[in-house]
Design a protein that fits this description.
With 579 residues, the protein is mainly beta. It contains 4 helices and 39 strands. The radius of gyration is 23 Å and the shape is globular. The protein starts with 12 loop residues before the first helix and ends in an 8-residue tail after the last strand. Keywords: Glycosidase, Hydrolase, Signal, Vacuole. It holds the Pfam family Glyco_hydro_32N. One of its GO terms (cellular component) is vacuole. This is CELL WALL INVERTASE 1.
């Protein structure tokens, strides 16, 4: 059966029934897991309503998301036996719209000597003739990290429910100075004008992070190139690298193998618990990647997200002509809490990603499809937010919401002077939390708040002056997010590249029981936080706008919606691998 793309429909029984019919047609039974969402109302207040997560157990990196024959596929690192890391396999879920999901049979699990001790991260590539392929890291009999290939057993199956491993595995091995413990996570491959495939693998050699480059004519026999695509003496191991083009002239996405001259290339590497990226010019003739700025250069700190967000992966969505970013959001409570919950890890809301108008950074925004979950809207305009005021946003489900707000600053001359030593935004936010009064700021939102504000997660801005320029600081303060003591309540921060003289300061926050994904300055800075309120749960959670600065600000517009649950379905005969 060949599926074709249809515009996203409203969430309904139609979606679930339609996908169940497809599953039955391919030999599976399905059952709704809406009951797992209902655990929120009993003993699972932190389980999300519209973020992707499996019904139970540990999940980490997204692996090779892709679009194939009308279906979106998400593969991810998964432990089928518990809520802690270990026994890692590739789990597999499918969707028509990136919002509602069906969990189907696991795609890849240990069966060969080249992956017998684990099937770790990797990527998907669509080969000529619409042939999907997976390159992934296996842990072999010597506990060495090696790179393997798998292909679908039946390409006519749009769900790609069965995968066959190459008899030539492993295709790439850690030789010639490569540390076998620091060699993993192959990217989506790209094809040059010479029809030769390229792929990079993350590594660390001589203490330096490195993207090892390989070439292949047939996607099976790979040759290592002497020079890496890129390396850095200021970083160590690069995990989950990603390399892809972005358009300099259009808001559309670009295919990974595109030869369009109006592009820049992005190299992303995961290290130091964050996903950093750099921009540059790539010439496939000699595989030269000339960067504009390097990782960890003084004054440059380009990240996808300045909070909890790691091991991300992008893919080109041909159906909607966009590039989409997924990221793993890990927990901020303890391992014993995870075991008690029975699960650990979320995926971010899928984000579109493109080059900013300035060409100096990327911007991100939640995919449009997530808006179909909105209902019960509240909005107001031109509301003065006086110094020291707190304004409730009533009438919505504050524990599961989507809120957009735009702030107008009538008195920019009141901004305090930026000390030249204040170069670290996270440190600055940690020192100037939401409770610390300033001049222009802090102002923003209080999510997961109790009525008396005993618990609150503050997402806010402060404005500073530096010579004749204005600096916008965005913070996410978790210090009062819960009365529980044993949690990671790190405060996060980022500077936003914008001029508040010429545009309002905007914030969008996706709130979902234990996660807040915030997008400042129309997606120029993103901060994701995990929080575990003890009091501000269910109907006891409130949402407020606030201004703790000495200067008044104005809310030019605020829109807030309650969010429905996403539909989650699992196949009843889902196989459990024998490890």
């Amino acid at each position: 059966m060949v599926l074709t793309w249809k515009p996203p429909m409203e969430i309904s029984v139609i979606w679930v029934v339609g996908f169940c019919v497809l599953l039955v047609a391919h030999g599976a039974q399905a059952s709704s897991h809406e009951s797992s969402r209902n655990l929120q109302e009993t003993d699972q207040p932190y389980r999300t309503g519209y973020h992707f997560q499996p019904p139970k157990n540990w999940m980490n990196d997204p692996n090779g998301p892709m679009y194939y024959k009308g279906v979106y596929h998400l593969f991810y690192q998964y432990n089928p036996y518990g809520a802690v890391w270990g026994n890692i396999i590739w789990a597999h879920s499918v969707s028509y719209d990136l919002v509602n999901w069906v969990h189907i049979d696991h795609a890849i699990y240990p069966t060969q000597p080249s992956d017998i001790n684990g099937c770790w991260s990797g990527s998907t590539t669509i080969l000529p003739g619409e042939k999907p392929a997976i390159l992934y890291t296996g842990i072999d009999t010597k506990n060495h990290q090696v790179q393997n290939l798998a292909v679908p057993k039946n390409q006519s199956d749009p769900l790609l429910r069965e995968w066959i491993k190459s008899p030539y595995n492993p295709l790439m091995t850690p030789i010639d100075g490569i540390d076998p413990d620091l060699y993993r996570d192959p990217t989506t491959a790209w094809q040059g004008p010479d029809k030769i495939w390229r792929v990079i693998v993350g590594s660390q050699i001589d203490g330096h992070g490195r993207a090892i480059l390989y070439r292949s004519k047939d996607f099976v026999s790979w040759t290592r190139i002497d020079s890496p695509l890129h390396s850095s003496g200021k970083t160590e191991m690069w995990e989950c690298p990603d390399f892809f083009p972005v358009s300099t002239r259009s808001s559309n996405g670009v295919d990974t193998s595109s030869q369009d001259k109006y592009t820049k290339h992005v190299l992303k590497a995961s290290f130091n618990h964050h996903d950093y990226y750099i921009l540059g010019s790539y010439k496939p003739a000699n595989d030269n990647f000339s960067v504009e700025t390097n990782f960890m250069d003084s004054g440059m700190d380009l990240r996808y997200d300045y909070g909890k967000f790691y091991a991300s992966k992008t893919f080109f969505d041909r159906a909607m002509n966009r590039r989409i970013l997924w990221g793993w959001i890990n927990e901020s409570d303890s391992e014993s809490d995870d075991i008690k919950k029975g699960w650990s890890g979320l995926q971010s809301i899928p984000r579109t990603i493109l080059l900013s108008n300035t060409g100096k950074q990327l911007v991100q925004w939640p995919i449009k499809e997530i808006e179909k979950l909105r209902f019960k809207n509240l909005s107001f305009h031109d509301k003065k937010l006086k110094s020291g005021s707190v304004l409730e946003v009533p009438g919505i489900t504050a524990s599961q919401a989507d809120v957009e707000v735009s702030f107008e600053l009538p008195n920019l001359e009141d901004a305090e002077i930026l000390d030249p030593s204040w170069t670290d935004p996270q440190l600055l936010c940690s020192q100037k939390k939401a409770s610390v009064r300033g001049k222009l700021g802090p102002f923003g939102l209080l999510a997961f708040a109790t009525k008396n504000l005993t618990e609150q997660t503050a997402i806010y801005f402060r404005i500073f002056r530096s010579n004749h320029n204005y600096i916008v600081l965005m913070c996410s303060d978790q210090s009062r997010s819960s009365v529980r003591e044993e949690l990671d309540k790190t405060t996060y921060g980022a500077f936003i590249d914008m001029d508040p003289r010429h545009e309002n300061i905007t914030l969008r926050s996706l709130i979902d029981h234990s996660i807040v994904e915030s997008f400042g300055g129309e997606g120029r800075a993103c901060i994701t936080a995990r929080v575990y309120p003890k009091l501000a749960i269910h109907e006891q959670a409130y949402l407020f706008a606030f201004n703790n600065g000495t200067s008044n600000v104005k809310i030019s517009r605020l829109n807030a919606w309650s969010m429905k649950n996403a539909q989650i379905v699992s196949t009843k005969n889902r196989r459990k691998p024998q490890l």
